[in-house]
Amino acid sequence: METDSFVYFVNFLESDENGQVKMYRKGSYVGCPLELVSDNYFALVGLEQDIEEGNQTWLSAKMKKELKLRLGC
Predict the structure, then answer these.
(1) pTM of the entire predicted model
(2) Among residues 5, 10, 2, 11, which one has the least CA distance to residue 25?
(3) How many CB atoms lie within 10 A of CB 24?
(4) Mean pLDDT of residues grouped by 10 in the chain (73 residues)?
């Protein structure tokens, strides 16, 4: 999932919330397109917050499916 500021990578096969999500800040300078922000619980919290606020600018097909299941749509 992407937002204006972050890119999230979610391992749907990982059952541990603390290891399931990696959160990267979009690079602010040339040569560093992504900067790791968190690879633990805080990445999951950031993902959840961005979903709740509707900040997503791009979703993978798998993430679209998961969000539909989560929201019951």
Answers:
(1) 0.88
(2) 5
(3) 19
(4) 96 91 87 90 96 96 92 74
